[in-house]
Amino acid sequence: MELVRNEAKIEAYRERARELVGRMTLEEKAFQTVNGAAEIKRLGIKAYNWWNEALHGVARAGVATVFPQAISLAATFDEDFIEQVADAISTEGRAKFNMQQKYEDTDIYKGLTFWSPNVNIFRDPRWGRGHETFGEDPYLTSRLGVRFVEGLQGHDENYLKAAACAKHFAVHSGPEDLRHSFNAVVSRQDLYETYLPAFKACVQEGKVEAVMGAYNRTNGEPCCGSKALLLDILRGEWGFRGHVVSDCWAIKDFHEGHCVTGGALESVAMAMNNGCDLNCGQLFAYLTSAVEQGMVSEERLDEALVNLFTARMKLGVFEEKGSTPYDAIPYTVVDSKEMKELNLRAAEKCITLLKNEEHLLPLNKSKLKTIGIIGPNADNRKALVGNYEGTASRYYTVSEGIQDYVGDEVRILFSEGCHLYKEKISNLSQGSDRLAEVKGVCDASDVVVVCLGLDPGLEGEEGDQGNQYASGDKPGLDLPGKQQELLETVYASGKPVVLILLSGSALAVPWADEHIPAIIQGWYPGAQGGRAIARVLFGEKNPEGRLPVTFYRSAEELPEFTDYSMKGRTYRYMENEALYPFGFGLSYTEFTYGNAAVSSDVVEEEGVTVRVEVANTGDREGTEKVQVYVKACREGTPNPQLKGIRKVSLKPGETKEVSIELSLAAFALYDEQAVNRVEEGEYVIYVGGSQPDCRSVKLTGKEPAKLRIMAKQEFILN
Fold it and tell me: Do 337-573 and 591-716 share a fold?
């Protein structure tokens, strides 16, 4: 749905905001620029806390639907569904806000300004916060980011349902333990080709209300006080008219970590003068002194406040109760039956089948007497939810989901197997203290489901409780602790083994790929995750997830974590063969492609249309994610890049024609001066169910269709 806002109404809000700001004292103004904005009773301004989170559900404020983590949602490759989930999140957000306002609760995490989505590029699988993102690809991140923003903000022409925030601007993806002092050095080509497109799309297409700066420096400038990022690019090149918020306590890093200013006053002035309107933290309280000493003009402070109050007016919080279409949303929509059903569908859609040798899956419960469930993530609630999470009224772990699904028809034997990352479960034991139990479970079982991986205690944000390893980043890509030993023990039993990985990032599991017949990447699938995994295991649902990140064979093939050059990173620039490539995912049915064609063999200004027939030649209903990749046939260009996705659901024997529009931008690449151009020459369009790389072809047994097209003239897109 095209987003159309009433520009006259927005200008009226801005004028109303200017009038309101004009009546404030300097001190009152300063205290409106911190996240815990104070009440100004004489002006009818209620206290408002800007800090709220909604990464995959309303977070940190009690019960709400806990959807699959962002990286999990990315695995759906389904932008329509992403908007549906985000719309549900903002519905619950409004419902909770309406209830909280009734009882005069204006605390943190109680507002309508949600600091989501995280559209940073997951450039390195060791980054702990990567599971907050939509993966490693700028195109996929852009499409999902825009639709998430639209889902949160709604489509009313006069009012925002909630205010979304694209973060962390820009060039931000670890290391976590260096973020308060780190300088991310990046070329203009990589900046514009990789790190900025999703932000640009959220601003220009999604009309995102807010942008959050990052902790680090980019090319020498602290991101929350960067003239290049905030003034030249965000405001200047892209025409952003919303508000900019700092990451939390990031402004004190200017003098304490980055050491580019002499103290708090200078840091505050640098941030405000370079376009930061709102401080998550308290340092902007110094703005009174900064203005009085001539370090910040009062006009610039007023401009920031107009941006902030315009946002609040767009949300309708200054209107009489009942004025917005969202005021009547009742609290009872939160955690409702409809929300739980949507959450279950979300979890089902993100599950990604990586291997299914000799069609071990789906399991037939009528032919099974005993199932062994083994592993530290089999009954681990933390591994369902990821970080920035809310509180569910009920969680379904993998073990619970399977047990509920089979009921009394099949005997379940369970063993934790090993600790998630420690050498032993019982402190007084000699180590590997559940292996005898594991062998006993395997011996008595017809099939064994092993659930391994990570949880947000091992990958996440610096400072989060439990992230004691590398400040939340992963020290490597291997299964932690005794998990590999556990898996090899189960395999040695000779029983059929299904491996379920729960993690928010890629793991290196080449041994499992070689030995284990069935492997599922379950991600962090949300509160309903165990139910969804059970339904996929037993064939009630056909897996349709696709990898939004590359699974590497080892960490040794990765560049240095601190190197922000894209050379050798992600599917777009990697030279080695992946273990499981970006875009890969299997199904229980078979899809074939035919009659692929392009509307023109010449690249024109209006772009081209790709058409292909997709047939379900298997015996189960399924959903295919048709992927279109474009490769410029000249030296020094990236590998084929994703430029189009279309979802198609097919019954057995059914065929549908799929049409995908490729704009001129699909053929453009940025040069070293950040000029975006389509150069003369040949391009190849690939259309199929995966990337055209050799590993994807080997894993799927299918080669995408290959269509050649020429650009007979140069186009400049900047």
Answer: no
Q: How far is CA 172 from the centre of its chain?
A: 14
**Residue 464: active-site member:** no
User: What ranges do the domains of the chain cover?
Assistant: 7-320, 337-573, 591-716
- The CATH number assigned to the domain with range 591-716 reads 2.60.40.10
3-state secondary structure at position 572: helix
Choosing from 136, 221, 459, 464, the catalytic residue is 459
Per the CB < 8 A criterion, the answer to whether 321 and 309 are in contact is: no
- Region label for 397, one of left (φ > 0), alpha (ψ between -120 and 50) or beta (otherwise): beta
CATH class of 7-320: alpha beta
* Alpha carbons 55 and 32: distance in angstroms, whole number: 25
Q: Is the dihedral of CA 265, 271, 274, 277 positive or negative?
A: negative
Write down the pTM of the prediction.
0.98
Q: What is the helix, strand, coil percentage profile of the chain, to 5?
A: 35, 20, 45
Residue 247 among the catalytic residues: yes
Q: What is the mean pLDDT of each run of 10 residues along the chain (718 residues)?
A: 74 97 98 98 97 98 98 98 98 98 97 98 98 98 98 97 98 97 98 98 98 98 98 98 98 98 98 98 97 98 98 96 95 98 98 98 97 98 97 98 97 98 94 96 98 96 70 94 98 98 98 98 98 98 98 96 98 97 98 98 96 98 98 97 98 98 98 97 98 98 98 94
Least Cα distance to 68 among 384, 354, 521 occurs for 384
Of 92, 136, 209, 247, the active-site residue reads 247
| The CATH number fitting domain 337-573, selected from 3.40.50.1700, 3.30.413.10, 3.20.20.150, 3.40.50.300 | 3.40.50.1700
Region for 177 from its dihedrals, namely left if φ exceeds 0, alpha if ψ lies in -120 to 50, beta otherwise: alpha
How many CB atoms sit inside 10 A of residue 508's CB?
20
Which residues are CB-contacts of 337 (< 8 A; sequence separation ≥ 6)?
none
